[in-house]
Write a structure and sequence with these properties.
The structure holds two protein chains of two kinds. Chain A is α/β, with parallel strands linked by helices. Chain A has 14 helices and twelve strands. Chain A has a single domain, classed as Luciferase-like domain (TIM Barrel, Alpha-Beta Barrel). In chain A, the strands form two sheets. Chain A has an eight-stranded parallel barrel, surrounded by eight helices. In chain A, strands 6-7 form a two-stranded antiparallel ribbon. Chain A is globular and about 55 Å long. Helix content of chain B is 48%, strand content 16%. The chains are: A alpha/beta, B alpha/beta. The interface between A and B is medium-sized, with 32 and 30 residues.
């Protein structure tokens, strides 16, 4: 059995995220993942806290908080606060941030894998009540501690894509959040599991969360919105991942340039049904749940029904989770 | 006069919320959720406090634009207002230099700090939703930052001395109706232990006194007394011995401490010189007892100020 969750982003409006938080328990949603659209919409930690306090048994995680944007001390303090509010249900999602976001923010990291590994180590030291002194490309801490007496257990999940990052996730993370075409997901899970085995970890120790844009076609979803989301996903997908796919590289460049110049809207005109099928899950309720099961068979421990949410998405979400639970009960 | 209390975030979330609820029920006008680089995150706590309280306003900060980008601060405040309504105030300022350094945040070129703060204030105010009643305050001490505060709705000063407050009002060109003058000193009201024996309030006052800018030290002739102590603190860090080196009369200029009756006198004096807001800073809000005693002080103050026999 896999965990079935919902992904939301900070750019969604309060009424939508409220509805998800208020109905998560009754719909049987196992987890909510909050994606940070940097600088847009609701503030990530406040939104995450709100979802934790609206629910009792649902796991809530950030998917992800970029270490390139926030001070590591702020990430640690937010995590500690959220862990308390959620009574241990909070998951710290961590990553370096999407390619397009980093370009937009003018951020560059010369050694992103090293930086993510060190950031993870620092957070774990802080959660263990330790004082940390460290200087790296991104961090500079001097005898910094969270001033807590008891250690806190906050799982750290990576939101990463490239092979080196996936290997790092297998070695040190408690989980990994994957996104991309099915062929890539299969590859990524293999890389993560192999890296975990190589350091003597059980493959079960690293949860594999797969978050894909989910476009239900049975409740009037917007094709335009779906194309925009897929355009952003394509533009954010690293070369190594695209090399696994049979897609014309010039076409990919057109999408990237469009997104880079005018945002997701600019890339949407180059997205066709073929690309939607590769990068997203779409179809009827049964088709979507079938695909969730197929992703689980690849090794995913959790599947996330991700935005775009359009049309009567509330009803679509209700039906999809009803179907998931019907099949679980059989 | 508007009453506020600063609640620090070192205790577990449930205790922080309990204190805020007591303050809210007790009629404290604003609960300030302080931000400090080594404890829980204030914007999250502000949101949780808003859920559990009904009447009080909620102050967030001091938030430093050096830790949080101005756009992130805007996002924080707009999210709070969207979720909980028009109940929030924001306090801005550069923050404690040493504490910022501990988390890798540097003041940078000191000669441009004031200008950068001004730019941050302008950016934040421009981008906050303009249909809400959110007030932006500047935490200030010296003349330059006080001048920047004129771009805000008011200034919060961390000294308690009337002479110093009057000096600020004169720097601002007098008191105006639309600009709020607030004081936010270390406080301990309603406890029986003599102030000069209470290490908590003495240490908080010492932190403010020893962090004064050279211009303030000169202006109020504090340099000769405090300079040797500042030098020693830089060498050995802040300790009880260092605090004890400071004359109690000087510590009294940077703190509000005493009985409920003496608090009434303080407020009467403040009202006369034009102070609009009093925020009782730490250690008052560090304990539930401190919050309860402030609530008792407010009740007593209300009785007296509403008395028909008062002249």
């Amino acid at each position: 059995m896999y965990r079935a969750s919902v992904g939301i982003t900070t750019s969604m409006n309060v009424s939508a995220t409220n509805w998800i938080g208020e109905n998560a328990e009754s719909l049987g949603i196992d987890g909510i993942w909050v994606g940070e659209d940097i600088g847009i919409g609701q503030e990530t930690s406040i939104l995450t806290a709100d979802l934790l306090s609206k629910t009792r048994d649902v796991r809530v995680g950030t998917g992800i908080v970029p270490i390139t944007i926030h001070n590591i001390a702020t990430i640690a303090r937010a995590a500690l606060t959220l862990q308390e509010i959620g009574n241990g249900r909070y998951i710290q999602g961590l990553g370096v941030g999407g390619i397009q976001d980093l370009i937009k923010q003018g951020k560059q990291l010369t050694r992103p894998v090293t930086e993510l590994r060190k950031s993870t180590h620092v957070l774990r030291q802080l959660f263990k009540t330790e004082a940390v002194t460290i200087q790296t490309e991104l961090m500079k801490l001097r005898e910094f501690s969270l001033r807590i007496n008891e250690p806190v257990n906050i799982p750290i999940f990576y939101g990463v894509r490239g092979p080196q990052m996936l290997k790092l996730a297998g070695k040190v993370a408690d989980g990994v959040i994957l996104s991309g075409p099915i062929d890539y997901i299969r590859y990524a899970i293999e890389v993560v599991d192999e890296a975990a085995s190589n350091v003597g970890r059980s493959t079960d120790e690293v949860e594999k969360v797969v978050w894909l844009p989910t476009i239900p076609t049975f409740k009037g979803g917007s094709e335009k919105l779906a194309k925009r989301v897929v355009a952003l996903v394509v533009a954010d997908t690293p070369e190594q991942v695209l090399d696994l796919l049979d897609i014309d590289s010039e076409w990919i460049d057109k999408i990237r340039n469009g997104v880079s110049k005018s945002g997701p809207k600019g890339g949407a005109e180059f997205i066709d049904q073929h690309l939607i099928d590769i990068f997203a899950i779409s179809g009827t309720c049964d088709q979507i749940v079938d695909k969730f099961e197929m992703i689980h068979d690849l090794g995913a421990t959790e599947v996330v029904l991700g935005p775009p949410f359009s049309g009567d998405w509330r009803e679509a979400m209700t039906e999809i989770f009803r179907e998931i639970h019907l099949r679980r009960d059989k | 006069m508007e009453w506020g209390i600063a609640i620090n975030l070192r205790e577990p979330v449930s205790e922080i919320i309990e204190k805020a609820v007591v303050a809210d029920h007790g009629g404290i006008d604003t609960v300030w959720i302080t931000d400090y680089p080594a404890t829980r995150l204030s914007p999250i706590i502000a949101s949780e406090v808003a859920k559990k309280t009904k009447n009080c306003r909620i102050g967030v900060g001091l938030l430093s634009p050096l830790i949080y980008s101005p756009l992130h601060i805007v996002q924080i405040m707009n999210t709070l207002v969207d979720m909980h309504g028009d109940r929030f105030d924001l306090l801005l300022g550069p923050g404690d230099r040493t504490k910022l350094r501990d988390i890798g945040v540097d003041y940078g070129n000191i000669s441009t700090l004031v200008e950068r703060m001004r730019e941050s204030v302008i950016t934040i105010r421009e981008r906050l939703q303009d249909d809400n009643e959110l007030r932006v305050f500047m935490g200030a001490q010296g003349p330059k930052m006080i001048e920047v505060s004129t771009s805000c709705d008011g200034v919060l000063l961390n000294y308690s001395d009337s002479q110093m407050i009057q000096w600020v009002i004169s720097l601002l060109g007098g008191k105006t109706k639309d600009f709020k003058i607030g004081v936010f000193p270390p406080s301990l009201i309603g406890f029986s232990k003599p102030c000069n024996e209470h290490m908590g309030i003495k240490t908080s006052a010492a932190v403010v006194a020893l962090g004064l800018s050279p211009s303030i030290l000169r202006e109020f002739r504090l340099r000769d007394n405090l300079h040797p102590v500042i030098k020693r603190m830089k060498e050995f860090g802040l300790s009880n011995d260092i605090v004890e080196m400071i004359d109690q009369n000087i510590l009294d200029r940077f703190s509000l401490c005493g009985s409920i009756e003496s608090n009434i006198k303080y407020l009467g004096n403040y009202q006369q010189i034009g102070v609009d807001i009093i925020v009782y800073g730490p250690p008052q809000g560090a304990s539930l007892e401190g919050v309860e005693r402030l609530v008792a002080a407010k009740r007593e103050h209300n009785k007296i100020t509403r008395s028909p026999y008062r002249d």
